Amino acid sequence: MDKEVKKLLNQYKGFLKEGKENFEKAWHFCSDEKNANELAEITLKGIKRGTTSLKYWYEVENEKIPKAGDLNIITDWEGKPVCVIQNERVFIVPFNEVSEEFAYREGEGDRSLKYWREVHIDYFTKELKEIGKDFNEDMMVVCEEFNVVEKF
Q1: Which CATH class is domain 3-151?
Q2: pTM to 2 decimals?
Q3: How would you classify the pairing of strands 71-75 and 23-27?
Q4: CA separation for the pair 40, 49 (Å, rounded)
Q5: Cβ count near 106 (within 10 Å)
Q6: How many Cβ atoms sit within 10 Å of the Cβ of residue 46?
Q7: Closest alpha carbon to 66 in 127, 24, 19, 16
Q8: Where are the domains of the chain?
Q9: Is 137 left (phi over 0), alpha (psi -120 to 50) or beta?
Q10: DSSP bridge partners of 92
Q11: Are the CB atoms for 75 and 81 separated by under 8 Å?
């Protein structure tokens, strides 16, 4: 973890009331610099208020599923802190059941379900291809709805 991020995590935890230390981690969106930075920027502006990941990765990497109340530091590609988000709601559904409302909340592109499906199918297909696994639209996805609670 970047030293600046670690320092911010500790500082921010100090401001929280006892029992509210729900920090999970610091991370950036996507797997390329351009998209990671663009998505951090629209998160900072309050446009992007949701994100989706394959449930498969939580199982394979033995990570706990995010939950409401979790706090995360969003960074740019280089690991520089941009903001703190707090999960408002987390739910798991098959990919093909993600709603138009959730796609809009993700805030990407034209915010339509059509755009959301196209970019996520492309992303998940590439992501899984690296390990020789195929994507299908029945796969479960973890949908996180969040709000920005701190800007840096």
Answers
A1: alpha beta
A2: 0.85
A3: parallel
A4: 11
A5: 25
A6: 12
A7: 24
A8: 3-151
A9: alpha
A10: 142
A11: yes
